[in-house]
Amino acid sequence: MDPFLSLLHSFSMSLSDNELSALKFLCLSKIGKRKLESVKTGSDLFTILLEQREIEREKVDFLQLMIKTIKREDLIMQLQEFIEGGQGDVVNHLDEKEKCQQNVAFEVICDNVGKNWKMLVRRLGISDTKIDRILTANPYNLQEQLMQSLREWQKWKGKEAKVADLIKALRDCKMNLVADKVEHELLQRED
Fold first, then answer.
1. Average pLDDT, the chain
2. CB count, 10 Å around CB of 110?
3. Phi/psi class of residue 71: alpha, beta or left (left: φ > 0; alpha: ψ in -120 to 50)?
4. Distance between alpha carbon 74 and the CA centroid of its chain, in Å?
5. Which of 45, 83, 28 is nearest to 61 (CA)?
6. How far apart are CA 74 and CA 93, in angstroms?
7. What percent of the chain has pLDDT over 70?
8. What is the pLDDT of residue 183?
9. SS3 sequence, the chain?
10. Is 136 or 118 the better-scoring residue by pLDDT?
């Protein structure tokens, strides 16, 4: 599924009737009046804007302006995170050793961290908005929620993503046993 379309759908679902009316008004110069009259949902509006190429994955200025105008800071943050997150696949820029170590660490963490996983990923600097997006995408799978959060951290940090930071975050969250298991598993793999 296209992440940009998912984002637009999420925006659409969170718009009130008044906000949709305001967005339609803001689009008067871009979309004909007759077409605007047929718009009943945010998805309808975004579909027209996509068809007319007013908004695209790499062209979000108009979308950003509309959202700012209706003063939806939460949606602005989500859009900003989407823009920042769309900067390519950072995992491919890590050196092989670090990538392998992170994969080992991720496996151990996912196998051993339970319901307190949100505390860990917040400690790593993942925003609540990203956590909510991950929860929505994987509503019934705790391990997958944690894995996606760790991958999000990896993508966000880029080359600065280090296993040592994961271990420190685990210790800061009083998850010393898991930190010890990560260190032990890494030592085992080096031998």
1. 87
2. 17
3. left
4. 13
5. 83
6. 31
7. 94
8. 94
9. CCHHHHHHHHHHHHCCHHHHHHHHHHCCCCCCHHHHHHCCCHHHHHHHHHHCCCCECCECHHHHHHHHHCCCHHHHHHHHHHHHHCCCCHHHHCCHHHHHHHHHHHHHHHHHCCCCHHHHHHHCCCCHHHHHHHHHHCCCCHHHHHHHHHHHHHHHHHHHCCHHHHHHHHHHCCCHHHHHHHHHHHHHHHC
10. 118
Q: Tell me if 129 sits within 8 A of 81, measured CB to CB.
A: yes
Q: Which long-range contacts (CB under 8 A, 24 or more apart) does 53-59 make?
A: 54/27, 54/30, 56/4, 57/2, 57/4, 57/86
**Nearest to 149, CA basis, from 119, 179, 175:** 119
**Nearest CA to 119 among 146, 99, 139?**
146
User: Token pair for residue 145?
Assistant: 């929620």
Return phi, psi of residue 135, to 5°.
Answer: -60, -40
Tell me, what's the pLDDT at 1? 65
Model-level pTM? 0.53
What would the mean pLDDT of 35-53 be, rounded to a whole number? 93
Rounded CA-CA distance 140/32 in Å is: 43
State how far the alpha carbon of 6 is from the alpha carbons of 92, 135, 158, 187, in Å: 24, 14, 24, 41
